[in-house]
Amino acid sequence: MIRCGTGYDAHRLAPGRKLILGGIEIPHDRGLEGHSDADVLCHAIADALLGAIGESDIGHHFPNTDESIRGISSLEILHKVNSVLDRQNARAVNVDATLIAEAPKIAPHIPAMKEKIAAALNLETSRVSIKATTNEGLGAIGRGEGMAAMAVATVETTN
How far apart are CA 75 and CA 86, in angstroms? Predict the structure, then answer.
């Protein structure tokens, strides 16, 4: 059976944090605030995958009250989500994600992001699509106060 899920995540930008997107550290004057590395792209993908198999979101699986996972890499989150899929006899088939941010430029980093995400999900890089857009100056994201990401995931199950 083929199933589909969607995911969305948003985080504020904060000084003194590294900017991690798609598992890649990107030079920027601020990073995303969060309990983990706050990688909005990986978080949206994780939620899309979990949604495709009818699971609760990443906040349930990786609660921000769990100090043992403070600072966890979102690539590790994707790897663990992939294990959840495996336990439910499911596997990721395709991921399509969009990052929404005013700065910095993301396009030069997309090939490396695709490789990292594909490896975490045991997929060919051709099955991971990452796009980037701005919010055209509108709202908090448009003012450069944060970033967001949306994702759709296709999953194949045997049950």
Answer: 17
Give the bridge partners for 8, in sequence order.
150
* Total number of residues shown for the chain: 159
Query: Residue 11 forms beta bridges with which residues?
Result: 147
The span from the CA of 46 to the CA of 140, in Å, is 24
Which pLDDT score is estimated for 63? 86
Coil, strand or helix at 145: coil
CA 64 → CA 50, 54, 58, 70, distances in Å? Answer: 18, 21, 10, 8
- Give per-10-residue mean pLDDT for the chain (159 aa): 97 96 96 95 98 94 89 94 96 98 95 98 97 95 97 93
Kindly report the backbone phi and psi dihedral angles of residue 65, in degrees, each rounded to the nearest multiple of 5, phi listed first.
-95, -5
